[in-house]
Every structure is written in structure tokens, then in C-alpha cells.
């Protein structure tokens, strides 16, 4: 191909013709892969159609689902509060766990349990052992093979977060501004906001595709069920970790093991649903 290009461009020709010929050849080459085959348009581009009626119905369904969920904000808060307090009592953690709920600062946020979990500050010995653990984790992550490079990045991110927490408690041990009640309450509110956003995230990423309305409704309800069940269990586990590891574990729990766990499940359900919908579309398009 390079010889042909040089032969074509090597012939005497007017500058304008030579320039247009070069762009014509290069424009044709950019549509071919490295093995010479032609690059086809991705199926997500050529297969997507967005009728106005589907867009209008999607917006209407997202608004309706959000309104229904928002109307159950008090019931959801009481459900999460009862479930969380039940687990804290069964785990026999030290603290006070009243049945009352702490009202939210904003009207669309959920009320959270007014719990008081007794959590200790880390001792100098604990900080020293954790500092050694951070260095060891950073070194061990570098030993992973190239196939484990994503795990290395994740482990080193965890090491950076926990190392920053260790440094903070070494320098300003009495200035940590967050409590266990705030950590648990803010985490529950983050999951609730994710539930409110679920229909609007599914609207452009799933509902716009040619799937049945039962599938559109089903993937959103399944995601809501996952988040509704996860929230009290996840933050009861956080309370257990804070009870044993102290405030030192809170930054790592909040940044990597809080709402991020809910998002991972959210994406997994979406991936399963869109793969199932794509498989059905391909079966429908297969020649009989």
C-alpha cells in the first residue's frame, strides 16, 4: 500500500490535484483496520433509534417512578432505621441506639437513626502498625503481574487513603470532625439519593434502547430492591468495623466501601440487563 501511495504521489501533477489525491487515499485508509478489513460502524450507533414518543414516555415514566419513591421517604427511613438498629443490637456493639430518627437537613433526604456508637481514637501503637501495613501494601501491590494491574491501582489507592488517615491522626488526633452517627447517616442518605436518581440514569442508558416497557420497569425495580436491601446491612457492617478498628477506618470505609459498593451492584444489574436485551435483539435479527 505504501509503494502504491508513493507511485501515485510520485507522478508529476498540479499541487492542488496532488493534495486532493493524498487526502482521498488517506481518507480511504482510515476506514480500514490494521489487517486490511473495513471497520464497520459500532452496533450501538447504527442500531439506536430514538422516536419522540419513546422519549416522551421515558420522561413520563421516570417522573412517575421518582414521585412514587419520594412519597415513601418516611416509610423507607423507618424501615432502614429498624433494620439497622436490629443488627446493632444483635452485634452487641457499645453505644446507645434509640428508635428515634434524626431528621434530614434537606426535604428530599431520608431521616436517619439517631444512634451513638462509642468509637475510640487510635493509639500511637495502632498508628505505627497501620503505617507499616500501608507501606507493606504499597510494596506488595507492585509485585502483581501485568494482568493484575487494575488490582494494583486499587490497592495502592486504598494505601494512599489509609496512609493519609494515619498521617492525620498522627498530627491532629483530636481534630477529626466526623462521628460514627454522621458516617452511617450520610451513607444511608447517599444510597437514598442514588435510588432517586436510578430512573434518570436508566433513562438514557437503557430505556432509550428498543426494549419492552416491562424490561425498562423491571431493571429499575430490581436496582431499587438491591439498594433497599443493601443499605442497612452495609452500614451495620461499617458500624462493626468502626467498633473494632476505631475512627481510623472511617475514611477508607467512606471512600471505597460505602456508596461505591452500591454503585458496583447498580452497574452489575445494568450490565446484565443490557446484555440480555442485546442477546434478544440479535436473535430477532438472525435470518430464519
Care to give the gist of this entry?
This protein has helices at 2-10, 15-29, 43-46, 52-71, 73-90, 124-141, 149-171, 180-207, 213-245, 250-256, 259-285; strands at 95-96, 101-102, 112-113, 116-117.
What would you say this structure looks like, in words?
By secondary structure, this protein is mostly helical. The protein folds into 2 domains: 2-39; 49-121 and 176-285, no CATH class. The protein is 70% helix and 3% strand. The protein contains 11 helices and 4 strands. The protein has helices spanning 2-10, 15-29, 43-46, 52-71, 73-90, 124-141, 149-171, 180-207, 213-245, 250-256, 259-285; strands at residues 95-96, 101-102, 112-113, 116-117. Strands 1-4 form a two-stranded antiparallel ribbon. Strands 2-3 form a two-stranded antiparallel sheet. Helix 7 runs antiparallel to helix 10 (250-256). The chain is flat and about 70 Å long. The relative contact order is 0.11.
Key terms for this structure?
mainly alpha, 2 domains, two-stranded antiparallel sheet, two-stranded antiparallel ribbon, 11 helices, 4 strands, 3% strand
